[in-house]
Amino acid sequence: MRDLKIIFMGTPDFAVATLKRLIEHKYNVVGVITAPDKPAGRGQKLNESAVKQYAVSQNLTVLQPTNLKNGGFLNELKALKANLQIVVAFRMLPKVVWQMPEFGTFNLHASLLPNYRGAAPINWAIINGETKTGVSTFFIDEKIDTGDMILQESIEIHPEENAGSLHDKLMHLGSKLVINTADLIKKDHVKTIPQTESSDIRTAYKLDRDNCKINWNDSLDNIYNLIRGLSPYPAAWCTLINGNDTLDVKIYKAEKEKTAHNEPIGTIVSTKKELKVSVSNGYIIIKELKLPGRRMMDVVSLLNGYTFGADAKML
Hints:
- By secondary structure, the protein is of the alpha/beta class.
- It is built from 8 helices and 18 strands.
- The strands form 4 sheets. It has a 7-stranded mixed sheet. Strands 12, 13, 14, 15, 16, 17 and 18 form a 7-stranded antiparallel sheet that branches.
- The radius of gyration is 23 Å and the shape is elongated.
- The mean pLDDT is about 95.
């Protein structure tokens, strides 16, 4: 049985669940690497990462390098004498870092690799209409999310699931998979599988303003999947034309209605309690949205104080 001395690397809440589980299972975490504190809010108060906050609460050694190739940081890392590094929702590591420990560096990724390598695997699985996704652990190599796989666990994506609820499910599933992976390494029972390469592998591209914009000329299902795949963050958006108003609107929750109609694409149909937008093969029924300068609200609340004209439309 190996005596593991672990460095944990991660930043957001998604990573905290794994670090917490490692501590609860009495693993020896000799150090935690996370992002530097960042100024946030009007007062520009320094904001600590979720991982740092938890690590400090457990009296763990925390390093917050700005440059992962910096000599001072590398010396600090070596001084911790770890023999295994575990990475969850962190940044790309230089070879000098991931090659350092005796038993390697493994990563938790929120997809069924080799599909959805990249920055936003949870979002893209939903956006692309997948019915199944999961979590994978693999040893890091030179490229992004391409290393030899250790373990994998799958989960169903429900038809009404959004990115927020799937994130939470994969966060807990992933933390269990990391423990199982660490157990195998501890017992020296790891058997890795190289990732297969093919032309039809789907990629989890970084989300930006362009790929988060709703194309109302797309199909009913594709628009619906985009909205739930980007909810609650960063949110699908579009432009509302209503009289003299031209507003960028974020849509957080919607339903779909498949039906034949003669409305032009993007036409808004509203009553006192319902707001829907015509698409090629039906309507997107908007349930929650946000107008500029306002908080996110349900449609009934919005319709109490905002009127859509007869010629209102979404672009």
